[in-house]
Amino acid sequence: MTIAKHLAAFAIVAGLSFGQGALAADEGHAEQVKPDRQSWSFSGPFGKFDQAQLQRGFKVYREVCAACHDLHIPFRALAQPDGPGFSEDQVKALAAEYKVNAEPNEAGDVVERPARPSDYFPPPFPNDNAAKAANGGAHPPEMSLLAKARTYERGFPTFLFDIFTQYQEQGPDYIVGILTGYTDAPAGFHIDPGVHYNRIMPGHKIAMPQPLQDGQVDYPDGTPTTILQYAKDVTAFLQWAAEPTQTERKRTGFTVMIYLVILSLLLFYTKKKVWSAAH
Predict the structure, then answer these.
(1) First vs last Cα of the chain: how many Å apart?
(2) Nearest alpha carbon to residue 54 among 41, 64, 44
(3) How would DSSP label each residue in 57-101?
(4) Residue 25 contacts residue 187 (beta carbons within 8 Å)
(5) Per residue in 226-254, pLDDT tens?
(6) Which of 103, 150, 164, 213 is 20 to 30 A away from residue 224, measured at CA?
(7) Residue pLDDT, tens place only, 107-140
(8) Considering the entire predicted model, what is its pTM?
């Protein structure tokens, strides 16, 4: 009798699951798609940033993303080691193209002045309400930590393999997936006005219009000007912005590992000498 009850309960649950799946299919809900895994120069324990790619990524950010998204980093960061590699003079000239609020004068008035390398990139909107009003009620996220803040579920058993392969690029892969995931909605999928279909975005609905188009940004170095290339370049730049000391951290980690190996060998040798003398 107990077995019969369990079988009946299983049949009910299976029926409900099948019914929910059929309902989702009827409503046109497309299956969630995981982003493609990309190849990154900064991946792995010995990876480092490609300076030319960071410069291209900064160009894409400045000409496309900066119109809506803030990047809370100082201009001088662009000249630090293992970064985009701009010279101090280039950073000074770049900063001077932006205006920031100066300290209040004696009358209490705040005027604008050219930015200096120590200043942060000014936000594209004066406040959050202005940002929402200009973007249909959606607030564009600040981008300095975006590559670390965004991720997706890898699932079992993939995440187990990631432990051994040291795969840590879920965020960058996800951003590239979003930037290249715009497509027409499948039949029956409801899209509200001002919302766009994206095959990678959870729920497949995103307020941001497709930001990248082929040939949109000129690359003087002859790199292909495709959506995928733009997406990878700006994502690499965002990864650097999120962790500008990543390359240095990896070098330090490798040095510490060598030190620990040598220390372990010395301790093992010392133990053998001590115990051999004792016996």
Answers:
(1) 71
(2) 41
(3) HHHHHHHTGGGT-----BGGGGGSTTSS---HHHHHHHHHTSEEE
(4) no
(5) 999 999 999 999 999 999 998 888 889 88
(6) 150
(7) 777 788 999 999 999 999 999 999 999 998 889 9
(8) 0.81
